[in-house]
Design a protein that fits this description.
The chain is mainly β. Among the domains are: 143 residues, YVTN repeat-like/Quinoprotein amine dehydrogenase (Methylamine Dehydrogenase, Chain H); 134 residues, Neuraminidase (6 Propeller), CATH 2.120.10.80; 48 residues, no CATH class. Helices cover 7% and strands 46% of the residues. The protein has three helices and 72 strands. Strands 13, 14, 15, 16 and 17 form a five-stranded antiparallel β-sheet that branches. 48% of the residues are buried.
Length: 679
């Protein structure tokens, strides 16, 4: 630009300023309002979602189906949405001004969205805990319900064309309903007298239709005035309980594979004779069951081997999704029920005369009378005429063994069959006999040692003589084992030619012996510094003594409920198990533990666990992953050990499970030796 041009522009600018000053004309700029601009939307909701449902507002029309979320939140995506919002597949949308409190439940009824919860207003109108949204505005349903402390409506479903609402409320639309009501498009109506919880209305948290009836679950002890523990069904005219007792609130119900599924805050389900612990259960129209396979969350108190199968008895309800009632067998691949089981707990198992013998606190086995003892022949439970011990025992059985070809039972009872038998008796296959005058208190454990029967328990006398918690029977008289123990003996076995006793004592023969001691035929000795709490069971596996119980240390080292002794010191089983061990045995070359635990090591293992090599070789008795002359040497030693016949099933050497070590076991070992080749 030339100097002259600049001069002209400057002159024009001066003239413009002079004109403004003379005329005082104001130059007005357009108004600018500062505000927030569109920001980053949330990738979802900013609170808690308690309920979800879908709603297609125009049916088969062009509008997309909506996903509705309800709960406790204020933002959905990039929209302010008070506790309820809709997702159309691409973005979130509010439903009017939403709900002023928590939304617990939702459903679709008469082409409208029904929302229940703990609120007082919906879209700015009064709506006591329940309201409907028609796609553009909110409406109240007959005055709503009288909520208890804004808990309100927790469950919504449609049953027989009517809307069902359940929750924590006494009235709906001014009608007494007690926790559950139905809406017929015009008014609220009661379902009988509803639910009760003591003197207060019960709470319904879930509702569903099953087999044509309405099922309600929640926190209540009566339904329609009759006893119903937290779940009940309505047949259109009256309430009935559903199965047995659920000991906590039922928070969710649905139907899956033709069965009703209940979930919630409960820990125990009692269904007639069955009891199991769970947070979810299924109802097959006759009984409650656990959802998991395996033993249904109940303790295993006894283990043995019969006809090549592992048999477990205890306090569990069932296995593999079916009723088992306290007893079941495992063939290495799956569990199987033994008929209809027993009607109460199983505490002891053994094999006698080729049959499985079962002892406990039951009164029936299958469909036959069986007073605390019964036999299973592989297909059915024995009737009373052929049952061992004739009429059974008067109270309960805690252990079973075989001595001198007779079945011996111990426990807490005063009669066995038709005779007086104080806490211990024997059966020779034809009649029941006492063992002298018995013992003065309960018998907890039985075994044989040096051709004598050993009994342990809580007693202080055996055969009328002093015998503190442990005694021996030589076939004619009772004798003490030194001065015995200062506490109960609850487990017995034989290890390295010595009798091992475990229990709840701190001295044996007058010397310190914490819960476990050994008897060499003349005196008691401790096993290191022992165990710090109760021992329930003992066995021998892989050349070591195994102890199970309810303890945390063995020999001063951490050992959670299971430990092993190699003859010189204690060792643990990695992290052990997370609750008590009550039974131990060996099956298919593995150590089997039964009890109340749910975790073994770092493996979820409910009520029973397996310890062993990753690959089991039948005949590998020393567990060196080969079958050779070393195993043959061990088998020969057991063959020569005649007392092996009476100690469980000869530990690992009974390879064909016939409860004796013989030529058939040598044949099994030889076959696997040849199949595996020579070392």
């Amino acid at each position: 630009m030339s100097y002259c041009s600049k001069r002209v522009n400057y002159s024009l600018f001066v003239i413009l300023i002079i004109i403004i000053l003379i005329t005082k004309t104001e130059i007005v700029f357009s108004q600018c309002d500062f505000d927030w601009k569109s920001g980053q939307e949330l990738p979802g909701l900013n609170g808690i979602v308690y309920s979800l449902t879908t709603w297609d507002t125009d049916g088969a029309g062009p509008q997309p189906e909506l996903l509705i979320a309800g709960g406790l939140f204020t933002i959905a995506g990039n929209s302010l949405s008070s506790n309820v919002a809709a997702w159309d597949g691409s973005c979130w949308q509010p439903l009017g001004t939403g709900i002023n409190g928590t939304v617990w439940s939702m459903t679709v009824y008469d082409d409208e969205l029904i929302v229940g919860g703990g609120f007082s207003m919906a879209g700015g109108i009064d709506a006591n805990s329940i309201a409907s949204w028609d796609g553009s505005s909110w409406h109240v349903l007959g005055g709503g319900v009288q909520s208890c402390e804004f808990s309100g409506v927790h469950a919504l479903t449609v049953h027989n064309g009517e809307l069902i609402a359940g929750g924590c409320f006494a009235t709906a639309g001014g009608v007494d309903v007690n926790g559950i009501a139905k809406w017929d498009d015009n008014s609220w109506q009661a379902l009988g007298t509803g639910m009760g919880r003591g003197l207060n209305p019960g709470i319904v948290y879930a509702a569903a239709t099953y087999n044509g009836n309405l099922v309600a679950g929640g926190l209540f002890d009566t339904a329609g005035g009759i006893s119903a523990n937290n779940i009940a069904e309505w047949d259109g005219s009256s309430w009935q309980p559903l199965g047995g007792e659920i000991n906590g609130s039922v928070a969710a119900l649905t139907v899956y594979n033709g069965e009703l599924i209940a979930g919630g805050y409960f820990t125990t389900v009692r269904d007639g004779m069955s009891t199991f612990s769970t947070k979810i259960a299924r109802w097959d129209d006759s009984h409650w069951h656990d959802l998991e396979y395996g033993i249904q969350s109940g303790p295993v108190h006894a283990l043995t081997i019969c006809n090549g199968k592992l048999v477990a008895g205890g306090g569990f309800a069932g296995i593999t999704g079916m009723d088992a009632n306290y007893i079941a067998s495992w063939d290495g691949y799956s569990w199987e029920a033994l008929g209809d089981g027993t009607n109460n707990g199983v505490a002891a198992l053994t094999v006698y005369d080729g049959k499985l013998i079962v002892g406990g606190s039951f009164t029936t086995a299958g469909d036959v009378v069986a007073n605390k003892v019964a036999s299973w022949n592989g297909n059915s439970w024995q009737n009373i005429a052929s049952m061992p011990l004739g009429n059974g025992v008067s109270d309960f059985i805690l252990d079973l063994t075989v001595y001198n070809n007779e079945l011996v039972v111990g426990g807490g009872f005063s009669t066995a069959g038709d005779i007086i038998a104080n806490n211990i008796a024997r059966w020779d296959g034809n009649s029941c006999k006492p063992l002298g005058s018995g013992v003065d208190y309960g018998v907890e454990a039985l075994t044989t040692y040096n051709d004598e029967l050993i009994a342990g328990g809580w007693f202080s006398e055996a055969g009328g003589i002093s015998a503190n918690r442990i005694a021996k029977w030589d076939g004619g008289v009772w004798q003490p084992l030194g001065s015995g123990m200062n506490g109960s003996v609850e487990a017995l076995t034989v290890y390295n030619g010595e009798l091992i006793a475990g229990g709840w004592f701190t001295t044996a023969g007058g010397i310190a012996a914490n819960r476990i001691a050994k008897w060499n035929g003349s005196s008691w000795q401790p096993l290191g510094s022992g165990i710090n709490d109760r021992i329930n069971t003992l066995t021998v596996y892989n050349g070591e003594l195994i102890a199970g119980g309810f303890f945390t240390t063995a020999g001063g080292i951490i050992a959670n409920n299971i430990a092993r002794w190699d003859g010189a010191s204690w060792d643990n089983f990695v992290s052990g198990v997370n609750n008590y061990v009550h039974s131990l045995t060996i099956y298919n070359g593995e150590l089997i533990a039964g009890g109340q635990f749910t975790v073994a090591g770092s493996i979820v293992s409910a009520s029973w666990g397996r310890w062993g090599l990753s690959e089991i070789l039948p005949g590998d008795l020393n567990h060196d992953c080969d079958v050779n002359w070393l195993d043959l040497d061990l088998l020969s030693a057991k063959w020569l050990e005649q007392s092996c016949l009476y100690n469980s099933w000869c530990y690992e050497s009974d390879l064909n499970y016939d409860h004796r070590v013989g030529f058939d076991d040598f044949a099994v070992l030889a076959k696997n030796w040849l199949d595996g080749g020579f070392p």
